[in-house]
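TICKET: design request
STATUS: open
ATTACHED STRUCTURE:
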C-alpha cells in the first residue's frame, strides 16, 4: 500500500513539475491526500512522517517539502481546513499555525546549508483566488533581496500600527508586531481590521522578520487584498524560491 501511494503521488508531482502551484491540474486536493492519506497514517502506524518532513499530531500540522524550489517547505494542517477564508483559523482553539511555520524555517536554512537572518526568511498564504489547493498551506522560504530592502523602512515602526506601502507594484499594509501568537496571530491581526469592503477570502498574508533576530526586532505582517486598488491576492511573488539571498549572504 505504501509503495502504491508513493508511486501515485510521485506520478502526480512529477507530472505537474512545479510544486503546489500546478498540483490542481491533477487534483486540487492533492496536498490533503498526501498529508492525511499518507503522512498522518504513516505517523500513526510507524511513528515516521512518510512523505512529509515532520508530522506533529498533537500540534495538528505537517511540514512537507514542496518540489518547487530547493528550499521551499509547506506547513499543512492535519485536519481539513480549506484556507484563509475558513472560520476555523479564527476559533479560540485554533492551532498557532504561523508560529509553528516560523519554527520550521530551520528546514529552509538546512536546505541552503546556511544560517540566514530572520528578515531573509518569510511565510506566506494566498487567497483562495490565487491558490491551486483546497487545503490550507503556508509557504516557508527565502525572501527576495529587493523586498528585504524595501521592507527595511518598517523595522522601526511602532508595533501594532498599519503603514501602507507599494511593493513590487502592489499595495500592501505593513504592521510590526512583537509576537505572532495569541492576539498577534497574523490571521487575527488581519481579521480585526480588514480594509473597508474586503473579506478574509480576498486576503494574502506574508510574515517575515523585522530584523535579523525576530526575537528582539519583532516581525512584519504584510497584507494585501484582491479588493483593493492595485491590491494582490498573492504575496508569494515577494518570496524567492531560488533563495538567491543565501548566495549573497
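STATUS: resolved
RESOLUTION: sequence designed for all positions
ATTACHED SEQUENCE:
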Amino acid at each position: 500500500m505504501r509503495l502504491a501511494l508513493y508511486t501515485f503521488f510521485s506520478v502526480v508531482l512529477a507530472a505537474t513539475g512545479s510544486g503546489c502551484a500546478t498540483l490542481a491540474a491533477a487534483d486540487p486536493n492533492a496536498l490533503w491526500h498526501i498529508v492525511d492519506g499518507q503522512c498522518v497514517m504513516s505517523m500513526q502506524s510507524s511513528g515516521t512522517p512518510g512523505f512529509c518532513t515532520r508530522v506533529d499530531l498533537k500540534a495538528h500540522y505537517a511540514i512537507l517539502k514542496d518540489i518547487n524550489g530547493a528550499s521551499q517547505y509547506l506547513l499543512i494542517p492535519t485536519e481539513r481546513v480549506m484556507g484563509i477564508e475558513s472560520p476555523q483559523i479564527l476559533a479560540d482553539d485554533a492551532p498557532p499555525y504561523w508560529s509553528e511555520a516560523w519554527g520550521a524555517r530551520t528546514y529552509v536554512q538546512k536546505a541552503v546549508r546556511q544560517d540566514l537572518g530572520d528578515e531573509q526568511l518569510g511565510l506566506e498564504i494566498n487567497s483562495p483566488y490565487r491558490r491551486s489547493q483546497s487545503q490550507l498551506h503556508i509557504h516557508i522560504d527565502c525572501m527576495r533581496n529587493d523586498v528585504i530592502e524595501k521592507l527595511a523602512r518598517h523595522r522601526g515602526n511602532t508595533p501594532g500600527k498599519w503603514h501602507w506601502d507599494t511593493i513590487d507594484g502592489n499595495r500592501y499594509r505593513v504592521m510590526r508586531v512583537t509576537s505572532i501568537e495569541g492576539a498577534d496571530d497574523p490571521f487575527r491581526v488581519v481579521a480585526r481590521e480588514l480594509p473597508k469592503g474586503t473579506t478574509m477570502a480576498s486576503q494574502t498574508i506574508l510574515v517575515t522578520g523585522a530584523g535579523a533576530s525576530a526575537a528582539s526586532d519583532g516581525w512584519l505582517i504584510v497584507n494585501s487584498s484582491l479588493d483593493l486598488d492595485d491590491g494582490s491576492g498573492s504575496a508569494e511573488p515577494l518570496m524567492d524560491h531560488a533563495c538567491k539571498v543565501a548566495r549573497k549572504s
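CLOSING REMARK: Residues 2-248 form a domain with the HIT family, subunit A fold (CATH 3.30.428.30). The chain has one domain: 2-248.
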